[in-house]
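<goal> How does this chain fold?
<body> The protein record starts here
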Amino acid sequence: MESSIDVAGVSGLVSAGARLTLGIDPGTAIVGYSVVASRGNTLSMVVCGVITTPAGMPLAQRLQQIYQRLGEIIATYQPTDAAMEELFFAKNARTALTVGHARGVIMLALANGGLSIAEYTPRQVKQAVTGYGNADKTQVGEMVRILLNLRAVPRPDDAADAAAVAICHLNTVPLLRERSVNPWEGR
């Protein structure tokens, strides 16, 4: 499931000076992804969707499928950087380990695609998108819809979460640059 603009539109965004960030909501069964364009203070959705792998498929094949599909997305949309949600599991160690494998494969695909990778906690993403670090999925989805001027909240939730990660990154990086100071300057 994917919603997107045409690829010719992507090259137009890039030539117009837009920054394209690939947001990732990692998983093994479902990986949410979204490419969000930023030009000045304007954010727009380029593509949003999920990569799904069958539950009965061996883990190595599922990871391979995630890696290959992400490589295709990177080659098609040519994002300038990437952001991923950090792993957060408090209950099931087996699930955390499996998702950790997927995160490793995702990071490898991003690095092989030449992308810098930023990581954000779920709380940081929620704070950046809604202004409230304990926001629920409905609130996050609705703010994604509003901030990207969409008619509907991206579905499934994994796709909306990936868009939220991209928005978080696009709104955080300028602040980090603004606050960065050369510690050796003025000494």
Q: What stands out?
A: Residues 157-179 form the longest helix (23 residues). Confidence is low (pLDDT under 50) at residues 1-8, 176-187.
